Amino acid sequence: MNRGNPHLVPAGIVAIIGHQPPVTRGLLFASASLMVLCTLEIVSPFTLYLNWQLIIYELQLWRLVTCFFYLGTFSLPYCWNTWVLVHYCSSLEEVAFQRKSAEYLWMLVCGAGMILLLTYLFGSQYFVSGALIDLMTYLWGRRNPTARMQVLFFTIRAPYLPWVLSWISLLMGGNVQDHLLGLVVGHTYFFFEDVYPLMSTSQGFRLFRTPRILKMVLNDPD
């Protein structure tokens, strides 16, 4: 752990966070706050991870949220996930969801809900922040199908981005099930939001339509 000057880490992260769109900024701030608290051993990661027994029987409801925000203590995996958030997830909010912060936030809420449902059904108990990041990178790749990306030392087409990023994360000790959850949920959202509404049988139905009240709160155009 870095105990020599703990203020260096937050200062650098604050500079990065300040240049991001609002929802991504909130994600970065939450993950950075938990990283600092856990790195300095003020908070234990064991109080943050997803544990359905503690949630249901002891009403530790905060775990439903903190399991998405904790990216680890200050380490290579944390820096990698933060880099992905800054480069791809912020781009998704700025371009695909331009002036649609409410839709972007609702996408994350719906995606998080699906991830939680799957973890409950399959009995998984861990941190699912990687799954949420995979959801965002999957959607970014699908909505930029012709883009070509430089990832480390090779160039790939955007739709393959989440698979490559997941592979790199696995090399750094990531969880296979975590990434599969994110990719499955990402494809589910993409299908019902971008594909199915265009089919004649859908009659314009959108499963993940953003609530109007959320648009009003965030001052998004209707």
UniProtKB/TrEMBL annotation:
Keywords: Endoplasmic reticulum, Membrane, Transmembrane, Transmembrane helix
Biological process per Gene Ontology, one example term: response to stress
Bilayer topology term: Multi-pass membrane protein
GO cellular component: a single term: endoplasmic reticulum membrane
TM region(s), chain numbering: 27-49, 61-84, 104-128, 149-168
UniProt entry tagged with the keyword Membrane: yes
Keyword RNA-binding: no
InterPro entries reported for this sequence: DER1, Rhomboid-like_sf
Entry's localization field: Endoplasmic reticulum membrane
Function: May be involved in the degradation of misfolded endoplasmic reticulum (ER) luminal proteins.
PANTHER family per UniProt: DER1-LIKE PROTEIN, DERLIN
Family the entry assigns: Belongs to the derlin family.
Name this polypeptide is given: Derlin
Native organism: Cladocopium goreaui
